[in-house]
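Hey, can you fold this one?
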Amino acid sequence: MKKLLPIGLLLILTACSRSTDRDKTVKTLKSIQSWTATARMVGEAWQEDRIPQQYARQTLIKSREEIAKEAKELPDPPTIVEQLKETISSLTDKIDRPDNVAFTTSLGKFSTQQQQLDKFTKSQEQQP
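Sure. Predicted structure:
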């Protein structure tokens, strides 16, 4: 019986460790989701001429930086995170150009990527 106790404790600690790792991953993904939502709202607000160009640019840059920082916390970041960072860079570049159609196209792509990130995050939350 005494020999089974350490084995039982080891199994419990291992299960707790997995849960903690999963919880940390989900928390990081939710932070990335939040920065993604910020970038999207700013992009939409700029597109509708509700915020200044400089504010939009600065916020998109900050969003991309924070997403990159959070992604480093993930043991195996999903591909969609890299795609989001690239699209935010594209949006930032397009703010300085007069071609609003290109910005709108990138913003639509970004919205689709955001939905993919949301689905991925939910799948991580539901894992045992």
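The chain has a mean pLDDT of 88. Let me know if you want another pass with a different chain boundary.
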